[in-house]
Each structure stands twice: as C-alpha cells, then as structure tokens.
C-alpha cells in the first residue's frame, strides 16, 4: 500500500492507494477524521490557512473543508491523466511583500501539463506544457524557483523574473547572496526582450567561475574545395581540386566517393592533358604505398585503358608513364628478391627447429 504523509503541527495526514485519507492526532495517536477521495492518492496538501486540504488522485483534485468535518467543497478535473504533485505558491506583484501576495495552487500531471489555480474560484490562471510526463514538482520557500522532474530524466528549472522584495531578511532560507548583491547594486537593469538585438548577445562577456562546468561550443567546420564541389555534384572538378591539394588521404577519399557514385570513369574521360599529368604523377608517387597499392593499381589499369590515345599526345605524360613503369619494375624485382630470400631462409628455420 502506497502512502502520502504530511505533518502539520500536531496533525498527520495519511493518504494511500486504497482511496482513503486519514487525519491522525499525534497527541493521542488516534484517527480524528477519515474520508474517501475515490481514486488512488498521489499527493495531499494543506492550504496556508490550515482549514482546507487538497488531495490528488487520478486526474481529479479535490478540496476538503477540514474544519467542517471533511466536507468536499470543490472538485477539479482539468488534467487528462493522473495528477502526481501539488504545491502552494505565492504570486507577489512589483515591490509586494511575499506574505501579502495571493496564493495559488499548482498541479503537475502525467499529461505533461503544469497548471495554476486561484484559490478563490479554483479556475485555471496559467498552464505550461512539458515534453514528457511530469513525475514530481517543487517550489522554493521564496516562491522564486520551481523544479519539475519528468519521466524522460530531464529536470526543468523555472525562475521568476523581478527584483527581490526589500522587506525580506538577508538570512531567509533559499535566498542566494548573489541575488541580494545584484538587487542592491542594480545590476539587473531593464529586462531585455526577445525582439531586441541585445537579447541574442546575452552571456557573451561572462567568464566561467571555478565551480562552473564549461561546455565548449562546436568548432566551425571548414570544407575543402573538393568537398564543396562534391556537394554540388561537380565530380571532375572535385577530382582535380583533390590532386592539386597534394593531400593523399583527401585524394583517395574523393576517388573512392566517385567510385561509390559510379562517376569515376566519366570524370577520368573529361580530364585535359594537364589534369591527366597531375593524376599520373599522383599514381607514380603513391602506387607503392602498402595501404593504397591495391586500390591504385586497379585505378592505374583503368586510366591507361581509358586514355591510351591521349597518353601519346604529350611528351610529359610519356615520361611520367616511363617513370611509373620503372617504379613498378623496381618493386617487382624487390618482391622477387624477397621471395628468393624467403625460399633460402625457410629450410634453415625448419632444420633448426628439429
């Protein structure tokens, strides 16, 4: 059985899931009043006067006259789902003392709504929608800060705007020193509205203090020329820009992207002789790099087959092809020597292992 317990002076209010509300006299440990809410109870709340009691169960909030023997005087069904929490809040006007301010009943429900009721007619004066069901709610002693916990794990903090009343002592519970200093020094100044330019510049000049958790802003992403050209589907220009950038990783990434888009052969076919020289030079330089060799060997075969006619038109390209051929022949000789050396060493290793 679930119980919501509230102790006020010498009276203990007890509400449970069996729909029952009981009032205990702590002086003699006896039940002095008992009545039914009609729904499993989630919260009970005494009004500031002490003569009225609010109970929340299901989507219903009921107001009871305790001095009148537990007589129900009002029922509110403004929520669509179960009301989970209730609080009493003061709503002071400008320069009004907190004790003289009118009280409001605040309710929070699983339908995601927080609603405010006046205590004269029990009408809704304000409501706010949250992105998840509300499980709990609390209001500070000075009625300036509200905390709302939701089922998504998020905690929402709302703070009342305005200056601190002059007649509140500095040692009041819940009053922060920096709030008092700002109020006395007039640092708050006029409220900046959302339609003013200064609204978007708030906090830019503030520096983090020792206890603050500093969250860095996202670094601006700078795109290379070939990235911009790929985004605009300018494939051949992106390939040339990558070759001119002298960035092997970027060039390989661009070529792989062109292969994925099935636009590599089309891009190779429209390269002029100068651009073709850049490509042959790149292949000669990186074809023997182990992590690129398998990919670049296949690319070299494609380039030589597709542009065989154009390769004969430029002396520079002929020279680059000859250099590429020499590099490949030298690498094949090295690989052959390594295989011969491996054939000599393996019998020796086997003989030594016996």
UniProtKB/TrEMBL annotation:
Record's subcellular location: Nucleus, Nucleolus
SMART domains, A to Z: WD40 (SM00320)
A biological process from GO: rRNA processing
Domain U3 small nucleolar RNA-associated protein 15 C-terminal per the UniProt entry, residue ranges: 206-348
Coiled-coil segments: none
GO cellular component: nucleolus
WD repeats, residue ranges: 12-34
Keyword Nucleus found: yes
The entry's keywords: Nucleus, Repeat, rRNA processing, WD repeat
Protein's UniProt name: U3 small nucleolar RNA-associated protein 15 C-terminal domain-containing protein
Organism: Picea sitchensis (Sitka spruce)
